[in-house]
Amino acid sequence: MKFYSNEIVFRGHPDKVCDQISDALLDAYLKDDKNSRCGIEVVGGKGKIFITGEVTSNSKVDVEAITKRVLKDIGYSDDYEIIDNIGKQSPDIALGTNDEVGGAGDNGMMFGYACRDNEKFLPTAMVILQELSQNYDELRKNDKRFLPDGKSQITGIYDEDNKLVGIKTFTVCYQNTEEDRVATDNIIKDMCTNICKKYNIEVENFIINPTGRFEIGGFDGDAGLTGRKIVVDSYQSFANVGGGAFSGKDPTKVDRSAAYKAREIAKKIVKSDDKYDWCEVQLSYAIGMEEPLAIYIKTNLGNIEADKSLYEECKPKNIIKDLNLKNECYEKRAMFGHFRD
Fold it and tell me: In this structure, are residues 56 and 35 in contact, taking their beta carbons and an 8 Å threshold?
């Protein structure tokens, strides 16, 4: 047996709030102009939310109104100074990424992963934490003792085949009013236990708010930044993670779209034959170039060579077409991690 840990942040965590603002703004720009080019970054803290990055779009977007709507949806006050510092995409970048050329929006490597642990083709400990984060968001809407910020971590017990067989420690840090803590802690423990039962997993020990108190949270307790939770957004350390964040980026940005495509390829391979327990795919690109530089596919049985048709499939313009990314609601992806299917 061996121990391995993974974590998630709740929807109200400051970094995750910034991700949702970035993606809500992206959705707004794409709504009336599907060819919008966006790279939107958000930083928040201490009464101010600073929005910067690059946008080239024919859409008219009320940046302040959308930002405040997201804050209220999450359970935050909207009493923040919103600073709009968005500029336009560099014309040098546009040379290689316009619709005619169809080149990659950036250099970089992106990873996709799938495994046979459950029907979602994701590590079970990751699925448990995603469900906890979603359930917690519903809980705080209905019980005012629970506040939006929080994070959780599992230290799992794994067998020789890397299968989760138990949880040594389930750690939860949740923001709350600190009223009736015994009762609210028990609600959290029951929620975790019930989720784990679905996957026949028992919890040996809980650690709840280990400092003893968690009332001050959100932007009052910590600053937030778009893209600072890319491991949570992808595979929570069970697989490699690419160099770029997802949120705030339109589909031409391969940091996002190629990561989604790599996940689809990995799932397809695992589904294709029971002999594959897991698969990891790496795609790499050069800015402005139409075809991937390389495709690397690794499984529990070794490497798989990518044929020429897969290189064609992984051109940015074909990824957008195949995955229908221009019709996504990106804000929803940003809430609880980008891979939940």
Answer: no
Asked whether the domain spanning 108-118+228-336 has the same topology as the one spanning 2-9+124-218, the reply is yes
94 is catalytic: no
Report how far residue 42's alpha carbon sits from residue 51's, in angstroms, rounded to the nearest whole number.
5
Torsion of CA 295, 298, 304, 310, to 10 degrees: -30
Would you call 15 a catalytic residue per the annotation?
Answer: yes
- Specify whether 286 is catalytic: no
CA distance 249 to 300: 32
H helix intervals, the chain: 14-32, 63-74, 91-97, 124-142, 181-198, 218-221, 230-233, 254-272, 308-313, 316-323, 330-336
Question: Which residue is listed with tokens 């689809």?
Answer: 264
Query: CATH assignment of 16-94, given 3.30.300.10, 1.10.10.10, 3.40.50.1000, 3.40.50.1370?
Result: 3.30.300.10
> How is the chain split into domains, by residue range?
2-9+124-218, 16-94, 108-118+228-336
pLDDT by 10-residue block (mean), the chain, 341 residues: 96 98 97 92 96 95 98 96 89 63 82 97 98 98 98 97 96 97 98 98 98 96 96 96 93 93 97 97 94 97 96 93 82 94 80
Catalytic residue among 68, 228, 333, 338: 228
Put simply, whether the predicted model's pTM sits higher than 0.90 gets the answer yes
220 is catalytic: no
For the question of residue 255 being annotated catalytic, the response is: yes
- Say how far apart CA 270 and CA 264 lie, in whole Å: 10
> What architecture (CATH level 2) is domain 2-9+124-218?
2-Layer Sandwich (3.30)
User: Using CA atoms, how far apart are residues 62 and 66, in angstroms rounded to an integer?
Assistant: 6
